[in-house]
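tl;dr need the bound structure. longer version: we got a ligand (zinc ion) that a collaborator sent over and nobodys looked at where it sits. i said id run it. heres the input, straight from their email, havent touched it
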Amino acid sequence: MTQSLILRRPDDWHLHLRDGAMLEAVLPESARHFARAIIMPNLVPPVVTAHDARAYRDRIMAALPEGMDFTPLMTLYLTEQTDPDDVADAHASGLVSAVKLYPAGATTNSASGVRDFDKVRGVLDKMAEIGLPLCVHGEVTDADIDIFDREAVFIDRVLDPIRRATPGLRVVMEHVTTSDAVDYVTSQPQDLAATITTHHLVINRNHILAGGIRPHYYCLPVAKRETHRRALRAAATSGDARFFLGTDSAPHTDALKESACGCAGCFTAPNTLSILAHVFEEEGALSRLEGFTSLHGPAFYGLPANEARITLTKGDPVPYPSRIETGDGPVTVFDPGFALHWRVT
Ligand code: NCD
Ligand code: ZN
């Protein structure tokens, strides 16, 4: 039995670091294990221009504790006012690694997102031309579409038309939660990839709703039924290079989660790698973990894999704090519901 596993240092291809006191508290939780991360731009106000991204990157680097090695890969929040030339300059200078599309109103801090997709056509064409990936929050926002159907409907109504209208656009479907998304990705050419979160490999919708409402399992896209979780596990552990890790670790204070109208987001940065090793072992796929965490993402983004290595060792249960303290208040760490035996060293 494998008791120890050496992996190239992982990257997180979808991460929320927030700002200010929250940034200071959560950044070390990712930087401890991850070399790089795609940083989500949904601050208030959002990171829209190259100027915003440069300032945010500076704040992240200023918050990074001495001695920690971490590179934030910045993104721009696509709005109907986004200037294609600003995006192209930000890409050419190496400042941004992707542009993020939020349908307006889809999730936390997405009010400035896109309503009319024709208005972003010029930016998308420019991105296709320069090879800059589009990261997509894949949910429609129509009130008449059931929340559990919003990802599948998005593929037909929005994503597929965008990709047809913009040939060559490289797209990452982020935090996929359905077998529909997995099937769509595998049916398409290699210019489409998908990230999968840690928590969607662990929970289904019953974990949120059965036997009491559990706000710390509520995130967007919301976890679906068990058949979908199984499809995500199969995709993540398949070795298919179009699927890679994006934790979507999304901290909110307990006060904001444990509320009559709680915020969406699971905070998984601290224990993600221990959970993933557990999941991949359960699936008999430990040999494919490195592809998912450390190789497929860089390949899609055209970056070298990390040279540094981490070791995962199996042994006595690894204690993780149930919450971390931040200047804004406590933030609960995702509880996978099982003991974690894989330790990162
Ligand atoms: C994210 C957040 O809190 O910023 N929440 C979430 O549930 N995943 C936004 C997002 O990625 O949808
Ligand atoms: Zn997210």
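gonna send this back to them w/ a short note. Residues 4-344 form a domain with the TIM Barrel fold (CATH 3.20.20.140).
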